[in-house]
């Protein structure tokens, strides 16, 4: 039963999806990070559904589908991870010591570098999604596996949350208070680490359902997320002395853009087209 409560807490905390209210007890929070990838699965499914509705049912332009698609993750999550991205951008560009940076993360006010960072991020992210919707538009014409291209966002969003949860239960914490510290303190860490690694393996195996092209795409997403994960560990330790909830959100946003970026690059190199056609 505590596992079910952990899932409800994870989905209600990290998304805007309606869930029943439950009391946050320590024993009920023990498996929250195990359930965190479910939020990514639902978010990826929502984006894939929007791509299908926009491209197939309503026949919107590729540009409009991409522009609206860029808003889907923010609508599903309520912007909780983007909030962490904004706070981290302000903290990193303060060029202060660790204590000052951690104080900036806690500051509810927004700074100039947060605004600049979000503007740059959304321009790049929307541009990448436009390339992705262009891939979807040409998939049927060129005989590519459309199903695989609709499914890959689910893989990317689910896997990145497995890595984010892994950082909370495995990386050093920058402070002993806050959301990340609370979940880490309540976590059954060995069990959660194994479960989160199993989520990663599940995502790769699920992508293999679409054949060699799907497996290659899944491994490409895995590779780029591992690179971002390693960079995130180094950056969080050097700049902040460990991870926080805001830094975990920052990681997710960077990982999301990088994952779609590698898939688009795959397409440009005709790897997906050649293997999935």
Describe this structure in words.
The chain is mostly helical and 277 residues long. The chain has one domain. Helix content is 79%, strand content 0%. The termini are far apart.
Brief overview:
The chain is mainly α and 277 residues long. The protein is 79% helix and 0% strand. The protein has one domain.
Features of the shown structure:
mainly alpha
List the helices and strands and how they pair.
Blueprint: H1 2-14, H2 32-57, H3 62-77, H4 80-92, H5 98-106, H6 112-142, H7 146-170, H8 179-186, H9 189-207, H10 211-240, H11 245-268, H12 271-276
Helix pairs in contact: 1-2, 2-3, 2-7, 3-6, 4-5, 4-6, 4-11, 6-11, 7-9, 7-10, 7-11, 9-10, 10-11
**By helix and strand content, what is the structural category?**
mainly alpha
Distance N to C terminus? 45 Å
Number of domains: 1
How many E-type strands? 0
Report the helical percentage: over 70%
Q: Counting H and I runs of at least 4 residues, what is the number of helices?
A: 12
Major sheet attributes: none
Q: β content, as a range?
A: under 5%
Shape: globular
Low-confidence region ranges: none
């Amino acid at each position: 039963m505590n596992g079910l409560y952990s899932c409800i807490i994870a989905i209600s905390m990290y998304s805007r999806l309606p869930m029943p209210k439950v009391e946050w007890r320590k024993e009920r929070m023990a498996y929250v990070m195990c359930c965190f990838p479910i939020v990514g699965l639902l978010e990826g499914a929502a984006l894939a559904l929007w791509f299908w509705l926009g491209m197939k049912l309503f026949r919107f332009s590729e540009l409009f589908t991409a522009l609206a698609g860029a808003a889907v993750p923010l609508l599903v999550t309520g912007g909780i991870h983007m909030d962490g991205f904004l706070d981290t951008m302000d903290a990193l560009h303060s060029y202060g010591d660790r204590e000052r940076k951690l104080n900036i993360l806690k500051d509810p006010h927004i700074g100039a570098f947060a605004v600049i960072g979000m503007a740059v991020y959304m321009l790049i992210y929307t541009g990448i999604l436009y390339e992705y919707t262009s891939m979807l538009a040409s998939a049927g014409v060129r005989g590519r596996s459309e199903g695989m291209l609709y499914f890959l966002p689910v893989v990317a969003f689910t896997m990145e949350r497995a890595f984010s949860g892994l950082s909370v239960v495995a990386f050093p914490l920058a402070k002993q208070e806050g959301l990340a510290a609370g979940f880490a303190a309540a976590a059954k860490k060995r069990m959660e680490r194994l479960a989160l690694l199993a989520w990663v393996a599940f995502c790769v195996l699920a992508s293999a359902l679409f054949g060699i092209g799907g497996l290659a795409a899944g491994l490409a997403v895995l590779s780029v997320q591992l690179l971002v994960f390693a960079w995130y560990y180094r950056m969080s330790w050097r700049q902040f002395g460990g991870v926080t909830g805001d830094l975990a959100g920052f990681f997710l946003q960077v990982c999301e853009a990088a994952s779609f970026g590698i898939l688009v690059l795959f397409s440009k190199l005709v790897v997906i087209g050649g293997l999935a056609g």
